[in-house]
Specification:
Strand order of the largest sheet: 2-11-14-13-12-15
Helix content: 25-40%
Order of helices and strands: HEEEEEEHHEEEEEEEEEEEEEE
Distance between the termini: 58 Å
CATH architecture of the largest domain: Beta Barrel
Number of strands: 20
CATH class of the largest domain: Mainly Beta
Strand content: 35-45%
Length: 350
């Protein structure tokens, strides 16, 4: 192709491009303009709201108190009635401790009681005979006094033996190790056949009242107060979905341990938790001002969150925003806006 023919061809295509661009422009001008939505019609004005700054921490379920069930006598454990995890009531028998020497001592004291009883009967019979002789003037008053003294000594010896027998019976009764309070058995550090001494723990019992032990960073110590609300999430070990529950802080310990402040919280529904189980909790760490908007004023496109920003006289402008966590304000569900909007912006629903 010659140079002249090439130039003519180029001019031909340029003319067609110009005609196509003019036609498209005329078509766009012929289309009706999109009506601008008024900001006041179903709009929302962005404003700053003071909210509680909740921090997520981990807490562990603890028993409000743990008490040991202790042996009251020395001996050998002949029976264990509980195991780890057993539920016990106050005064329930946890174990039985037996001492073979108590049975031997009981037999010896029973023999002493029988001997003392015979002495008392003999002394009483002798005094009755002497009393009849004394009335006839056969024996003297001094002899009667001697017989009265012998009877009194025999009776006192009998009462002493009987009292000692009651002591042995009480010791045998105390061989039953009792649960001091109702709760759940945490540990049983002994086994059947083990030798225990008085005061040695046979079982450790966690009482039925459970609490949440919070361990918070030191920087939160100035924010946390007794009576503050604590919210815990669903139980991780539960197969059934659970809603979050709330409680309140009952005690803040005045001593820091390893850079952490300890606090206890009362929360309902911890009875079936394991002692030591960890749960996620949220506490208030002060307050801050945030921008909150209703969730229905946002929409997603290409993986981003958008809102429609109202403009006077023109169509709304779609703006990309970064959203934070869901919150509740005056009973209405709201979402926090981290960036993309400013206070006073007016939004319209998409």
């Amino acid at each position: 192709m010659s140079r002249g023919q090439s130039g003519a061809m180029t001019r031909y295509f340029d003319h067609h491009r110009i005609f196509a661009a003019v036609a498209i422009g005329l078509l766009i001008l012929a289309l009706p303009a999109a009506p601008a939505q008024a900001a006041g019609e179903g709009g929302f004005t962005v404003a700053r709201v003071s909210v509680s700054d909740d921090k997520s921490v981990f807490a562990s379920v603890r028993s409000a108190d743990t008490v040991p069930a202790r042996a009251r006598i020395a001996g050998t454990i002949v029976e264990l009635k509980v195991d780890e995890g057993s539920a016990v009531s106050a005064g329930a028998v946890v174990a039985l401790v037996a001492d073979e020497k108590l049975a031997l001592r009981a037999e010896a004291i029973d023999a002493q009681i029988a001997a003392a009883t015979s002495e008392v009967e003999n002394a009483r019979a002798e005094r009755e005979r002497a009393s009849a002789l004394f009335e006839r003037g056969t024996i003297s008053k001094a002899r009667m006094d001697q017989l009265d003294t012998a009877l009194s000594v025999a009776e006192n010896r009998l009462r002493a033996a009987q009292a000692e027998r009651q002591v042995i019976s009480q010791q045998v009764t105390e061989g039953a190790v009792l649960a001091p309070q109702a709760g759940r058995v945490l540990t049983v550090p002994v086994s059947r056949g083990a030798v225990v001494l008085p005061g040695e723990p046979v079982a450790v019992i966690a009482i039925d009242r459970y609490i949440l032990r919070l361990e918070l960073p030191e920087r939160h110590a100035r924010f946390i107060r007794e009576g503050d609300t604590v919210r815990i999430g669903a139980r991780a070990l539960s197969a059934v979905p659970q809603a979050s529950t709330t409680g309140h802080i009952t005690k803040v310990y005045p001593q820091l341990e390893s850079g952490r402040v300890l606090a206890d919280a009362e929360v309902q529904g911890l009875g079936d938790y394991f002692v030591g189980e960890r749960v996620q909790a949220w506490i208030s760490a002060g307050s801050r001002e945030v921008l909150l908007i209703p969730p229905d004023y946002t929409f997603r496109r290409f993986g981003l969150h958008y809102v429609r920003l109202a403009r006077d006289g023109t169509a709304p402008l779609e703006v990309v925003v970064e959203l934070g966590q869901q919150r509740e304000n005056d009973g209405q569900a709201m979402v926090e806006v981290l960036s993309g909007l400013a206070e006073g912006d007016r939004l319209v629903r998409p």
